[in-house]
Design goal:
Number of strands: 12
Number of helices: 9
Helix content: 25-40%
Distance between the termini: 76 Å
Structural class: alpha+beta
Number of domains: 2
CATH topology of the largest domain: Deoxyribonuclease I, Chain A
CATH class of the largest domain: Alpha Beta
Length: about 325
């Protein structure tokens, strides 16, 4: 009986080890094509919660084959995320001109407009990209911001996409690209030059292949032909191990990877209870800020407050590598 119970007990860490190995191999071979591979990518950091105790138990009980099987996925995950925990050197002196950018999915059901405005005033970004903002929310937020911060004077709202760009610098709304990642395209004349900004929110409907095709088309048709500075940001509904993320980072840099620290999880926020009676901690990072070779990132943070949203905002300070052109 004791031997049977022991076998049942040790079957759990074996299942975790083999399942983790299988998920990582499937992800490496097939990318996002199969659900187990996609889930492994989304929740890869959380496998550490299972693998570390399994490895400790295997070592203490001198189960060498189990320890080896657990160690393989554990080391792969550590190698993948270790760079996010290394101290990063500052790319330039602190006094250099910066462009502060915030991306913020405010959540269409969020009624805490004052809390949203408080977060924005607290961070003082030059450019704010908002997703899932209904017309009434936008009108109220605009009113609160203009009353409390007169420097926030420029607004562009796309009612079809439910997305907005707010800026301290003149904004010209260029296009509404519904079939290319739900992208709101604007041009902003900033204190460091003109910047093309794309505020995106590819929807979950249609699956990962549809999101991938839309963002790939956005890259090829709108971003890569640009000769000036470009910022691409928003709620991408994908993590940093997805095929879509890898497609974007072939051409653009990720602000969090360059100048962030830690996992930087953005969803769900613990301030909103959407999945039952108990609020969940943030589990995944699906909100991103990318930029082309005209910038480098000095500092990137995921905020600790959400202002009533189910997403935490991401803020980065971008430094122009050179003086940006006045004309596109």
């Amino acid at each position: 009986m004791r031997g049977l119970l022991g076998n049942v007990f040790w079957s759990a860490p074996w299942a975790v080890a083999i399942g983790s190995c299988g998920g990582l191999v499937l992800r490496w071979l097939t990318g996002d094509h199969y659900l187990p591979g996609r889930l492994t990518g989304y929740f890869m950091p959380w496998l550490l919660v299972l693998l570390l105790p399994a490895l400790l138990g295997a070592l203490l009980s001198q189960r060498r084959w189990l320890a080896l099987t657990v160690a393989v996925p554990l080391l792969l995950i550590i190698v993948a995320y270790a760079p996010l925990f290394w101290p990063l050197p500052r790319p330039v002196e602190a006094g250099a001109a910066t462009l502060k950018v915030m991306t913020y999915n405010v959540w269409s059901e969020n009624r805490q407009v004052a809390a949203m405005a408080r977060l924005i005033r607290q961070e003082q970004p030059d450019i704010i990209l908002l997703q899932e903002i209904r017309s009434r929310q936008f009108t109220e937020l605009r009113h609160v911001l203009t009353e409390t911060d007169p420097d926030v004077a420029y607004f562009a709202y796309d009612p079809q996409l439910l997305q907005a760009v707010i800026s301290r610098h003149p904004v010209e709304q260029l296009e509404s690209l519904r079939r290319r990642g739900q992208a709101q395209k604007v041009e902003i004349t900033t204190h460091v030059g003109k910047v093309t900004v794309l505020n995106v929110h590819p929807l979950r409907q249609g699956g990962w292949k549809r999101r991938y095709r839309q963002i790939a088309a956005l890259l090829e048709e709108e971003i890569l032909p640009e000769t000036g500075a470009v910022i691409l940001a928003g709620d991408f509904n994908v993590n940093d191990h997805s095929q879509l993320y890898r497609r974007v980072t072939r051409h653009l840099s990720d602000a969090h990877r360059q100048a962030g620290f830690g996992f930087g999880f953005t969803f769900p926020s613990s301030e909103v209870n959407r999945f039952g009676r108990l609020p969940l901690p943030p589990l995944i990072r699906i909100d991103h800020i990318f930029y082309n070779e005209f910038f480098t990132a000095r500092a990137t943070r995921t905020l600790a407050q959400s202002g009533g949203s189910d997403h935490y905002p991401v803020v980065t300070e971008l430094i122009p590598r050179q003086l940006l052109p006045e004309q596109p």
